[in-house]
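Q: What structure does this chain adopt?
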Amino acid sequence: MSSRWPISRRTMLRGLGASLALPMLDAMTGGKAVAMAGEAVGAAASAAGASAGAGATSPLRMAMFFLPNGMCMEDWTPGAEGADFQLPPTLKALEAVRKDVTVLSGLALDNARAKGDGPGDHARSAAAFLTGAHPYKTSGADIKLGVSVDQYAAKAVGGQTRLPSLELGLDRGALAGNCDSGYACAYVSNISWSSETTPVPKEVNPSKVFDRLFGPANERQAAEFRAKRLRYRKSILDFVAEDAKRLGRDLGKSDQRKLDEFTTSVREIEKRVERDREQQAKAKEMAKIPDVKLPEEIPDDIQEHFRLMTDMLVLAFQMDLTRVSTFMVASDGSDRTYRMLGISEGHHTLSHHGNNKEKIDQIRKIDKFHVEQFAYFLKRLSEVKEGGKSLLDSSMILFGCGIGDGNRHNHNDLPVLLAGSAGGGITPGRHLKYDRNTPLCNLYVSMLDRMGVKVDRFGDSTGPLANLIA
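A:
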């Protein structure tokens, strides 16, 4: 049984200040979309997608993950080229999604090099990673860089979704001052830039990300809604229950099952967010005791933090709330410790290993940990189906760093991989090896082209990246 009417891709469940955009349903793909009883087409709803009309198809999504401090490259780089490559030790966690991943070797980030500015490779690595631009060296307010590739894409497709782009991270980073050999902290702590002088700040607090996805767009209204929800101990789903019930009566069995799976996922994430809120509230009470430090209001467990943020990114893509995102695992030069891996020394400190085997082994553990979390995210994307494909099929997900080997601080032979087939525009499941110093920005030209943004040049690009389609 199919739905009684075709449903617009813009359909949202609404109630008492809450809004819940729907995943793509079978009922959205046939005939001319018409309004129905449960549909809300206010400011938030009307923004929900270029493919929001009749015969809705999967929109293309783009996300860029940034890692700090380089990699142990001998454990990252596959030995063979083409489709027959074996995953090296660091990438083993990607086995379940191997056919969806393209490993790109030989790419370089020229504007992360010194160019006469002396030390500061970490600042330049983060700053140039998505902009392809060389940062003006200053530790003051007169920062200058360039527009990042994600913001180019957001300007083109962001008007079709409620959130033009979504900037996420795990590490707040410093907001002002000198963070790397005379480079401002803004360069080290941000990868997304909307103009030459304006970084787009990332959100690291899962609670605030959740509220941004499901509450009113207005910050004051969002705070009021959050307070109301907590006061009455209600789930976001309780507020939209009547609308969901009304919609469910008109859906076929397949769509009813999809809607149930989706709302179950929302509730599971909501419980994790609320659990973290409660833990932070208790910690704040403890902070009133002398000598107890106020918490950062983010999960103490980095794996839970990483996965909770990526789970919400999956929901944001699934609900078509945004099609462009960045994810900064940490500020470049981060000296985070990974005690749950049995590592007490900081990441940045270890990256300067001086070929010490014990330190290299610890770097390998950190590298594998990051790839494992990314593999979790890709698997979640692959499990969400829409229009006969998965979210991963309809995505381009970049994962990489602006430094190759952390000990050398080189900006060529970068660790870069691209997941997803971009709706058929990329042939994944291969290791592509390029000539030495091929610009990473060539990849960005190709990605922008897939997003419908035509550029002759980006950063130090020399054209689109060859061979992305077999």
